[in-house]
Every structure is written in C-alpha cells, then in structure tokens.
Amino acid sequence: MIRTLNVGMIGHGFMGRAHSNAYHRVNQFFNVPFQPVLKSVAGRVKDTTEAFARRWSWERAETDWRRIVEAPEVDIVDVCSPNNTHCEIVLAAAAAGKMILCEKPLAINLDEGCQMTAAVERSGKANMVWFNYRRVPAISLAKQIIEEGRLGRVFHYRATYLQDWTISPGVPVGGPATWRLEKAVAGAGVSGDLAAHNIDTAIWLNGPVARVNAMTEIFIRERFRRDGSPARVEIEDVCSFLARFENGSNGTFEATRYARGRKNKNSFEINGEKGSIYFDLENMHQLQYFSHEDLPHLQGWRTILVTGVEHPYMANWWVPGCVTGYEHTFVNALADFLNCLEKGERARPDFRDALETQAVTEAVLESAQTESWITPAALDP
Length: 381
Ligand code: SOE
What we know:
Blueprint: E1 3-10, H1 14-29, E2 34-42, H2 46-55, E3 60-62, H3 66-70, E4 76-79, H4 86-95, E5 99-102, H5 110-123, E6 127-129, H6 137-147, E7 154-162, H7 183-186, H8 190-206, E8 209-217, E9 222-224, E10 230-232, E11 238-245, E12 250-256, E13 265-272, E14 275-280, E15 286-291, E16 302-305, H9 326-343, H10 351-370
Parallel strand pairs: 1-2, 1-4, 2-3, 4-5, 5-6, 7-12
Antiparallel strand pairs: 7-13, 8-11, 9-10, 11-12, 13-14, 14-15, 15-16
Helix pairs in contact: 1-9, 4-5, 5-10, 8-10
Bound molecules: alpha-L-sorbopyranose.
C-alpha cells in the first residue's frame, strides 16, 4: 500500500519549482512506495509565496519557515532557500526529527556543513542533497560503464562547468537568483555553485580527491545592488584547479560564469586504459564512448542515445528516442530517495557525501588563496 509523506518546502525560487514538479510527477512515472503530499511552502514575501503555492498546488503558504519545521504533520523538510539559511534550518529540522532534503551546496562553509551533517546523523532520519546531475540518465550510464570495468585504469578526469550570465557589469548583487553574487549569502562563487556539481560527479565516478591546486579570479569587482547602491564583489567568478585523485588519476576542473556563449556546459571526459567517455549537459541525452576493445578497424567515438528502456531511469519515461531533460533529474532523484527510504538504505548523495564535496570546495578556495597544493580536510567518521 502506498503511504503518504507530508512535505514542507522552504524557498520557492528556481529550485522550488524543480522540486515541486518532482513531487507532483514522481508517482505518475515511478512505482514508489510513498506519495509526497505538498503540505506547505515557506517564503519571505506573503504575496509571492501564496501565488507560488497556488500555482504549484501547495496546501499552505507560510512566511516563517519555523512553522514548517515545527508542524507535527510535516515528515520531510525540503530546504531550497539561499545557502546562508541552510544551516539554521537544517539544525532545527534535525532537532525536530524531520527527514531532510537539502539543495546544494550543502553549506556556506565546511564548518557549517560539519554541524549540519552531525545533526542529521544524530537524528538518524533519512537525508539527501539535491546534486541532481547524478540522476541524468547518461551520467548514471557513465557510472555503469565504469563499474563494468570498461574504462580500466583511469588516467585523466577533465571537467568543466561553463556559464556566461554574469559578464555584464549591470548584473546586480543580491536579490532573486543574483544572491549568488553576494558572499554573505552564497558563501562561495562558482566553486560552491558550479564546481561543486563537477566535484560531486567526479567523486561518484572516480573516487575521492587527494589534493588540489587552484586559481580563482574576480573579473568585475564593483557592481551595484538592486537599489543602485555600490557593492563590492567578493565571490570568485572563475575557478580552475588541478586535482590528484586517490586512484592515481589526474584531474582538471574549470568553472566560470564568464564563458561567453556557454549557458550550462557541465561536461566531463574520462580517459582510461581501455576506453573513454565524454558527457556534456547541453546534449544531456547523449553519452560519447570510445572503446579500445572494439576491432581496430571499427574503433571510433560512438554516440549513445540514452533513451532506451535498458538505460538508467528511462524505462519510467517515454518510448525510446524521446528525450528527457533537466526537470526529470529531480524526479529521478526523488524516486531514488523514496525507494531507499523503503529499503532503509542511504539515498546518495546524502549529507555525508555532500560534506566530502564541501571539503574539496573549501580546499580549492584555500589553495587559490595560498597558491599551494591543499589536501581536503579529513572528516570525522
Ligand atoms: C547557477 O546559474 C545554477 O542555477 C546553479 O545554481 C544550479 O545548481 C545549476 O544546475 C544551474 O545553474
């Protein structure tokens, strides 16, 4: 019998829409043992929160997130408010014994991430962080190809996350979406926002990062707030780093919001002894694969159209050849969470996984500052 789970969501921006869509869709496309009920959504401004609640069929709109955390009927607290609010909300939700889903990056720094992880682990309740790209079918297929041993020993991991939306000096600091440019709210710039996605995927596909050597830059240091007052930019616009993985492979990573023409180019290439794979989010239904084990005269990069019933998640969607997109990754993630909940398994990436990513992000920033190789902080078990 399908059981209901009451969800209270805090924040209703871009991610609030992605998550709401997932709550509505998951039971239509996946046979999962639970049905999320969209109980209440919280936002700071009454009118816009109520309008959001109406549009996405949330039963209630709140202007104080504490009412969600304290509501006895809420089973899951979903945190998709700006980064600097994550810690306080998560600590309160964990103390109230709620299951917690949290947007990435986990925290504004490693110290807060450690407190949050300790709190959810103490509570013993299920938790997950929405690093949604693991649930792109083509990236899950890459994981399968690696686990099947088709790449062999890995030599290189090469990742980029390229966007171009902050090139204009007219982009303000603070407010909807552009809070990402405000250090006190975002914590970090592209390292926490974009490279964190690459790091999460890299750790998943290629194992732990042993050390990093990074450089960062702020290209536009003076901007304006929405009210016209001047604002000094303190978050990094670009971050590039070298990484050594524990498995002995070398990595290069580049994340920027200054790559003119690149809108959301989250890509990686992995080169192994027996083969290589390449993925680019701007063609997210495809995975490129080269096998050195093919007959020599047939060797070449092949493009796998990841839409078949044999591909991860795709049996739940449309018929072969019909592609899925960005929003489906959140539905896939939620389906995994609900299935893991039933089985009593960790839904990955959970807070502990995201903390590992946070430690690498922090090492990247420290490395850029000190111009030296940095080993990510060892995390308490
Ligand atoms: C930044 O522009 C952003 O919205 C990120 O915050 C998301 O995590 C990313 O997936 C899309 O780009």
